[in-house]
Amino acid sequence: MGAEFKISADNDGRRVDRLLRTKWREVPLGVIMRAIRTGDVRLDGRKTRPDARLAEGQTLYVPWERREEASAEKLRKAQKKFPPLDTLYKDDFLWIVNKPAGLLVQPDEKGGDSLVSRALAELGWERSDYRPAALQRLDRNTSGAVIIALAGAAQRRLAELIRKRKIKKVYHAVVEGLTEELGRIDVPLKKDAAANRVSPDKEGQEAITLYRRLAEYETKSLVELLLVTGRPHQARVHLASIGHPVVGDSKYGSGRGARRPLLHARELIFPDDADLPEKLRGLSVLAPLPEDMKEYEREEK
Protein backbone atom coordinates (compact mmCIF):
# COMPACT_ATOMS: atom_id res chain seq x y z
CA MET A 1 0.00 0.00 0.00
CA GLY A 2 1.35 3.41 -0.95
CA ALA A 3 0.70 6.96 0.14
CA GLU A 4 -0.72 10.01 -1.59
CA PHE A 5 -0.38 13.62 -0.51
CA LYS A 6 -0.96 17.16 -1.73
CA ILE A 7 1.91 19.47 -2.55
CA SER A 8 1.99 22.38 -0.10
CA ALA A 9 3.10 25.96 -0.74
CA ASP A 10 6.38 25.16 1.02
CA ASN A 11 7.21 22.62 -1.70
CA ASP A 12 6.02 24.64 -4.68
CA GLY A 13 8.87 24.67 -7.21
CA ARG A 14 10.88 21.87 -5.58
CA ARG A 15 12.14 18.89 -7.52
CA VAL A 16 10.34 15.57 -7.09
CA ASP A 17 13.46 13.66 -6.01
CA ARG A 18 14.47 16.27 -3.43
CA LEU A 19 11.06 16.30 -1.81
CA LEU A 20 11.02 12.51 -1.57
CA ARG A 21 14.48 12.46 -0.02
CA THR A 22 13.32 15.00 2.57
CA LYS A 23 10.04 13.30 3.46
CA TRP A 24 11.29 9.69 3.39
CA ARG A 25 14.81 9.94 4.76
CA GLU A 26 14.77 6.26 5.69
CA VAL A 27 14.23 5.15 2.06
CA PRO A 28 17.55 4.64 0.20
CA LEU A 29 18.21 7.03 -2.65
CA GLY A 30 18.55 4.13 -5.11
CA VAL A 31 15.08 2.89 -4.19
CA ILE A 32 13.60 6.37 -4.67
CA MET A 33 15.22 6.86 -8.07
CA ARG A 34 14.19 3.41 -9.29
CA ALA A 35 10.57 4.00 -8.23
CA ILE A 36 10.51 7.29 -10.16
CA ARG A 37 12.09 5.66 -13.22
CA THR A 38 9.61 2.74 -13.29
CA GLY A 39 6.56 4.97 -12.80
CA ASP A 40 5.78 3.77 -9.27
CA VAL A 41 5.99 7.41 -8.23
CA ARG A 42 3.24 9.38 -9.98
CA LEU A 43 2.44 13.07 -10.15
CA ASP A 44 -1.25 13.79 -10.74
CA GLY A 45 -1.62 10.17 -11.80
CA ARG A 46 1.16 10.26 -14.39
CA LYS A 47 4.73 9.08 -14.57
CA THR A 48 7.16 11.85 -13.68
CA ARG A 49 10.87 12.67 -13.75
CA PRO A 50 13.29 13.14 -10.82
CA ASP A 51 13.90 16.77 -11.82
CA ALA A 52 10.24 17.66 -12.46
CA ARG A 53 9.20 20.81 -10.61
CA LEU A 54 6.25 20.50 -8.27
CA ALA A 55 3.36 22.97 -8.06
CA GLU A 56 1.16 23.72 -5.07
CA GLY A 57 -2.04 21.63 -5.17
CA GLN A 58 -0.64 18.76 -7.22
CA THR A 59 -0.97 15.20 -5.91
CA LEU A 60 2.08 12.96 -5.53
CA TYR A 61 1.75 9.21 -5.09
CA VAL A 62 4.58 7.02 -3.73
CA PRO A 63 4.69 3.22 -3.28
CA TRP A 64 5.69 3.48 0.40
CA GLU A 65 3.56 3.68 3.51
CA ARG A 66 2.59 7.13 4.75
CA ARG A 67 5.25 8.31 7.13
CA GLU A 68 4.00 9.08 10.63
CA GLU A 69 4.43 12.67 11.72
CA ALA A 70 6.13 13.43 15.00
CA SER A 71 3.90 12.62 17.97
CA ALA A 72 3.08 15.14 20.66
CA GLU A 73 4.98 13.00 23.17
CA LYS A 74 8.11 12.97 21.02
CA LEU A 75 7.90 16.74 20.61
CA ARG A 76 7.58 17.25 24.38
CA LYS A 77 10.64 15.06 24.99
CA ALA A 78 12.66 16.97 22.38
CA GLN A 79 11.67 20.30 23.91
CA LYS A 80 12.87 19.10 27.33
CA LYS A 81 16.10 17.71 25.86
CA PHE A 82 17.34 20.93 24.26
CA PRO A 83 17.68 24.41 25.78
CA PRO A 84 15.89 27.31 24.05
CA LEU A 85 17.71 29.27 21.36
CA ASP A 86 18.84 32.87 21.72
CA THR A 87 16.49 34.68 19.33
CA LEU A 88 17.72 37.83 17.60
CA TYR A 89 14.78 38.24 15.20
CA LYS A 90 11.77 36.12 14.27
CA ASP A 91 8.71 36.35 12.03
CA ASP A 92 6.75 33.93 9.84
CA PHE A 93 9.41 34.14 7.12
CA LEU A 94 12.64 33.49 9.01
CA TRP A 95 14.25 33.10 12.40
CA ILE A 96 17.66 34.55 13.23
CA VAL A 97 19.39 33.01 16.24
CA ASN A 98 22.65 33.65 18.06
CA LYS A 99 24.46 30.31 17.85
CA PRO A 100 26.76 29.57 20.79
CA ALA A 101 30.27 28.31 20.17
CA GLY A 102 30.53 24.51 20.42
CA LEU A 103 27.17 23.79 18.79
CA LEU A 104 26.88 22.18 15.36
CA VAL A 105 24.51 23.78 12.85
CA GLN A 106 23.33 20.37 11.59
CA PRO A 107 23.22 17.17 13.72
CA ASP A 108 26.03 14.69 13.04
CA GLU A 109 23.91 11.74 14.18
CA LYS A 110 20.22 10.93 14.44
CA GLY A 111 18.71 12.74 17.40
CA GLY A 112 21.96 14.61 18.03
CA ASP A 113 22.18 18.11 19.41
CA SER A 114 22.50 20.92 16.87
CA LEU A 115 21.09 24.32 16.03
CA VAL A 116 18.53 22.76 13.68
CA SER A 117 17.56 20.08 16.23
CA ARG A 118 16.91 22.74 18.85
CA ALA A 119 14.96 24.87 16.38
CA LEU A 120 12.68 21.98 15.40
CA ALA A 121 12.08 21.11 19.05
CA GLU A 122 11.34 24.70 20.05
CA LEU A 123 8.97 25.13 17.12
CA GLY A 124 7.22 21.84 17.92
CA TRP A 125 7.69 20.93 14.27
CA GLU A 126 5.52 17.97 13.23
CA ARG A 127 5.67 17.95 9.43
CA SER A 128 8.00 15.72 7.43
CA ASP A 129 7.43 17.20 3.95
CA TYR A 130 9.25 20.41 4.86
CA ARG A 131 11.76 21.20 7.59
CA PRO A 132 13.06 24.65 8.56
CA ALA A 133 16.60 25.00 7.21
CA ALA A 134 19.71 26.85 8.39
CA LEU A 135 21.12 28.90 5.52
CA GLN A 136 24.69 29.40 6.80
CA ARG A 137 27.50 26.97 7.49
CA LEU A 138 29.16 28.26 10.64
CA ASP A 139 31.85 25.99 12.05
CA ARG A 140 31.07 24.26 15.35
CA ASN A 141 33.27 26.68 17.32
CA THR A 142 32.18 29.86 15.51
CA SER A 143 29.43 31.76 17.31
CA GLY A 144 26.91 34.27 16.03
CA ALA A 145 23.94 35.05 13.81
CA VAL A 146 22.43 32.24 11.73
CA ILE A 147 19.36 32.48 9.47
CA ILE A 148 16.77 29.69 9.69
CA ALA A 149 14.17 29.72 6.90
CA LEU A 150 10.71 28.86 8.23
CA ALA A 151 8.95 28.25 4.91
CA GLY A 152 9.82 26.88 1.50
CA ALA A 153 9.39 30.21 -0.27
CA ALA A 154 11.59 31.91 2.30
CA GLN A 155 14.29 29.29 1.89
CA ARG A 156 14.35 29.67 -1.89
CA ARG A 157 14.39 33.48 -1.84
CA LEU A 158 17.01 33.78 0.88
CA ALA A 159 19.27 31.12 -0.67
CA GLU A 160 19.16 33.01 -3.96
CA LEU A 161 20.02 36.31 -2.27
CA ILE A 162 22.95 34.64 -0.48
CA ARG A 163 24.12 33.08 -3.74
CA LYS A 164 24.04 36.51 -5.39
CA ARG A 165 25.95 37.99 -2.42
CA LYS A 166 23.14 40.41 -1.59
CA ILE A 167 22.92 39.52 2.11
CA LYS A 168 25.99 40.96 3.80
CA LYS A 169 27.71 38.80 6.42
CA VAL A 170 29.89 40.71 8.88
CA TYR A 171 32.17 38.93 11.34
CA HIS A 172 34.29 40.03 14.27
CA ALA A 173 37.53 38.25 15.04
CA VAL A 174 40.38 38.60 17.52
CA VAL A 175 43.66 38.00 15.70
CA GLU A 176 47.32 37.77 16.53
CA GLY A 177 49.39 40.90 15.93
CA LEU A 178 48.61 44.39 14.72
CA THR A 179 46.78 44.39 11.37
CA GLU A 180 46.62 47.17 8.83
CA GLU A 181 43.78 49.60 9.44
CA LEU A 182 42.04 48.49 6.23
CA GLY A 183 42.67 45.58 3.91
CA ARG A 184 41.41 43.33 1.16
CA ILE A 185 42.32 39.65 0.94
CA ASP A 186 41.77 38.21 -2.51
CA VAL A 187 43.17 34.67 -2.28
CA PRO A 188 41.55 31.64 -3.96
CA LEU A 189 40.86 28.75 -1.61
CA LYS A 190 40.77 24.99 -2.11
CA LYS A 191 39.28 22.48 0.31
CA ASP A 192 40.66 19.03 1.09
CA ALA A 193 37.41 17.31 2.05
CA ALA A 194 39.15 14.23 3.48
CA ALA A 195 41.25 16.32 5.86
CA ASN A 196 38.55 18.99 6.34
CA ARG A 197 41.20 21.59 5.71
CA VAL A 198 41.26 24.62 3.41
CA SER A 199 44.39 26.07 1.83
CA PRO A 200 45.26 29.06 -0.37
CA ASP A 201 45.55 27.73 -3.92
CA LYS A 202 45.62 29.63 -7.21
CA GLU A 203 43.54 26.79 -8.70
CA GLY A 204 40.92 27.10 -5.97
CA GLN A 205 37.62 28.98 -5.78
CA GLU A 206 37.50 32.76 -5.74
CA ALA A 207 37.46 34.08 -2.17
CA ILE A 208 37.41 37.74 -1.11
CA THR A 209 37.45 39.18 2.41
CA LEU A 210 37.45 42.87 3.35
CA TYR A 211 38.60 43.87 6.82
CA ARG A 212 39.21 46.84 9.07
CA ARG A 213 40.87 47.09 12.45
CA LEU A 214 38.47 48.14 15.18
CA ALA A 215 40.81 48.08 18.16
CA GLU A 216 44.22 47.09 19.48
CA TYR A 217 44.57 44.98 22.59
CA GLU A 218 48.17 44.43 23.72
CA THR A 219 49.55 42.07 21.03
CA LYS A 220 46.19 41.40 19.39
CA SER A 221 43.73 43.17 17.11
CA LEU A 222 39.96 43.16 16.99
CA VAL A 223 38.95 43.20 13.32
CA GLU A 224 35.68 43.44 11.43
CA LEU A 225 35.39 41.22 8.38
CA LEU A 226 33.02 41.43 5.43
CA LEU A 227 32.92 38.08 3.65
CA VAL A 228 32.22 38.99 0.04
CA THR A 229 32.25 35.27 -0.78
CA GLY A 230 31.28 32.47 1.59
CA ARG A 231 33.85 29.67 1.29
CA PRO A 232 34.36 27.10 4.06
CA HIS A 233 36.83 28.37 6.71
CA GLN A 234 37.31 31.52 4.60
CA ALA A 235 37.83 34.03 7.41
CA ARG A 236 40.24 31.81 9.32
CA VAL A 237 42.36 30.84 6.31
CA HIS A 238 42.45 34.35 4.86
CA LEU A 239 43.55 35.91 8.14
CA ALA A 240 46.22 33.26 8.60
CA SER A 241 47.43 33.87 5.04
CA ILE A 242 48.32 37.49 5.88
CA GLY A 243 50.10 36.53 9.11
CA HIS A 244 47.26 37.31 11.52
CA PRO A 245 45.63 33.99 12.48
CA VAL A 246 42.54 34.00 14.67
CA VAL A 247 43.41 33.71 18.36
CA GLY A 248 42.71 30.17 19.60
CA ASP A 249 42.67 28.62 16.12
CA SER A 250 44.60 25.37 16.41
CA LYS A 251 43.99 24.36 12.78
CA TYR A 252 45.25 27.49 11.03
CA GLY A 253 47.20 29.21 13.82
CA SER A 254 48.96 28.41 17.08
CA GLY A 255 45.86 27.55 19.08
CA ARG A 256 47.07 29.74 21.93
CA GLY A 257 45.19 32.44 23.77
CA ALA A 258 41.67 30.96 23.84
CA ARG A 259 39.86 27.65 24.01
CA ARG A 260 38.33 28.13 20.56
CA PRO A 261 38.87 30.37 17.53
CA LEU A 262 37.64 33.82 18.54
CA LEU A 263 35.44 34.31 15.50
CA HIS A 264 31.85 35.58 15.69
CA ALA A 265 29.17 36.14 13.03
CA ARG A 266 28.40 39.65 14.23
CA GLU A 267 25.88 41.13 11.80
CA LEU A 268 23.52 40.26 8.94
CA ILE A 269 22.43 43.06 6.62
CA PHE A 270 19.51 42.42 4.28
CA PRO A 271 19.18 44.27 0.96
CA ASP A 272 16.32 46.57 0.00
CA ASP A 273 15.04 43.87 -2.32
CA ALA A 274 11.54 43.35 -3.68
CA ASP A 275 11.92 39.58 -3.15
CA LEU A 276 11.85 40.13 0.61
CA PRO A 277 8.92 41.02 2.89
CA GLU A 278 8.85 44.78 3.46
CA LYS A 279 9.89 44.59 7.11
CA LEU A 280 13.09 42.72 6.16
CA ARG A 281 14.23 45.17 3.48
CA GLY A 282 17.35 46.95 4.69
CA LEU A 283 17.15 45.24 8.11
CA SER A 284 20.37 44.88 10.11
CA VAL A 285 20.54 42.22 12.84
CA LEU A 286 23.36 42.26 15.41
CA ALA A 287 24.51 39.29 17.49
CA PRO A 288 26.06 40.33 20.84
CA LEU A 289 29.60 39.10 21.33
CA PRO A 290 30.02 35.98 23.50
CA GLU A 291 31.71 36.20 26.90
CA ASP A 292 35.14 35.13 25.63
CA MET A 293 35.24 38.11 23.23
CA LYS A 294 33.63 40.83 25.36
CA GLU A 295 36.91 42.10 26.81
CA TYR A 296 37.99 43.00 23.28
CA GLU A 297 34.64 44.67 22.57
CA ARG A 298 35.28 47.06 25.46
CA GLU A 299 38.47 48.19 23.79
CA GLU A 300 36.65 48.89 20.50
CA LYS A 301 37.03 52.49 19.33
UniProtKB/TrEMBL annotation:
Class of this enzyme: isomerase
Highest taxon of source: Bacteria
Example of a GO MF term: pseudouridine synthase activity
Catalytic activity as recorded in UniProt: a uridine in RNA = a pseudouridine in RNA
Protein EC: 5.4.99.-
Alphabetized CDD domains for the sequence: PseudoU_synth_RluA_like (cd02869)
Residues annotated as catalytic: 139
InterPro entries: PsdUridine_synth_cat_dom_sf (IPR020103), PsdUridine_synth_RluA-like_CS (IPR006224), PsdUridine_synth_RluC/D (IPR006225), PsdUridine_synth_RsuA/RluA (IPR006145), RluA_PseudoU_synthase (IPR050188), S4_RNA-bd_sf (IPR036986)
Gene Ontology biological process: pseudouridine synthesis; RNA processing
Domain Pseudouridine synthase RsuA/RluA-like: 94-241
Sorted UniProt keywords: Isomerase, RNA-binding
Pfam entry (one): PseudoU_synth_2
SUPFAM superfamilies in alphabetical order: Pseudouridine synthase (SSF55120)
Biological function: Responsible for synthesis of pseudouridine from uracil.
Family: Belongs to the pseudouridine synthase RluA family.
Name of the molecule in the record: Pseudouridine synthase
Protein's organism: Synergistes jonesii
